[in-house]
Amino acid sequence: MEAVVFVFSLLDCCALIFLSVYFIITLSDLECDYINARSCCSKLNKWVIPELIGHTIVTVLMLVSLHWFIFLLNLPVATWNIYRDSTHCC
C-alpha cells in the first residue's frame, strides 16, 4: 500500500510541476505580448481547479496513510490553494 501511495504522489507531483511550467510559459507569452490578457486568463483559469484537486488529493492521501511529516509539508500549499480559489470565486 505504501508503494502505491508514493507512486501516485510522484505522478501527481510531476503533473503539478508540468502545470507550473505551463503557467510560467503562458505568463511569459503575456509579458512579451504574444497573447492578450483575456486569452491568457482563459488558458490559465481552466487549470486552477485541477491544480487544487491535485494538491488536495496528495495531502489527504498522506493524512490517511499516516505519513505525518509529508502531510505537514503539503498542508500549507493545499491550504493556500484552497484560500486562493475561495477568494477568486466571489
TrEMBL record:
Membrane topology according to the record: Multi-pass membrane protein
A Gene Ontology biological process term: vesicle-mediated transport
Record's keyword annotation contains Membrane: yes
The keyword Iron-sulfur is annotated on this UniProt entry: no
InterPro entries xrefs: Cornichon
UniProt keyword terms in alphabetical order: Membrane, Transmembrane, Transmembrane helix
Membrane spanning stretches: 6-27, 48-70
A cellular component term, taken from the record's GO annotations: membrane
Subcellular location: Membrane
Pfam families to which the protein is assigned, alphabetical: Cornichon
Family the UniProt entry places it in: Belongs to the cornichon family.
PANTHER family, sorted: CORNICHON-RELATED
Name assigned to this protein: Cornichon family member 4
Organism: Sciurus vulgaris
